[in-house]
Design the sequence.
């Protein structure tokens, strides 16, 4: 969607590159979300690590996200207009100055 709008995005392969607590904390703060709101539960070790418990602290969530990058929900998108968790994917358009006239997702849905 970003490319269809005429931008060349810089993609961060966080599963390979990893995160630091400061990077994640800054992304979440800039997006106005907490680590818990950014936690990916499905298909991750979140439950086994006790991260779904109400008492799990932001610091413990960040530490786990650094150790297990799959715990970070995605995609997180940063543009000059801000940072957001772009789910559903068309939320990315809120962060772009220009958008494509029409875009068809991989599943055939037109947005």
Sequence:
């Amino acid at each position: 969607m970003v490319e269809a709008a005429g931008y060349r995005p810089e993609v961060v392969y966080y599963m390979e590159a990893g995160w630091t607590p400061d990077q994640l904390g800054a992304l979440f703060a800039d997006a106005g979300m907490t680590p818990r709101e950014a936690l990916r539960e499905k298909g991750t070790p979140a439950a086994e690590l006790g991260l779904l418990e109400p008492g799990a602290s932001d610091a413990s969530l960040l530490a786990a996200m650094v150790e297990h990058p799959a715990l970070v929900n995605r995609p997180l998108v940063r543009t000059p207009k801000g940072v957001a968790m772009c789910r559903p994917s068309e939320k990315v358009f809120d962060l772009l100055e220009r958008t494509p006239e029409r875009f068809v997702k991989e599943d055939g849905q037109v947005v």
Summary: The two ends are 10 Å apart (CA to CA).
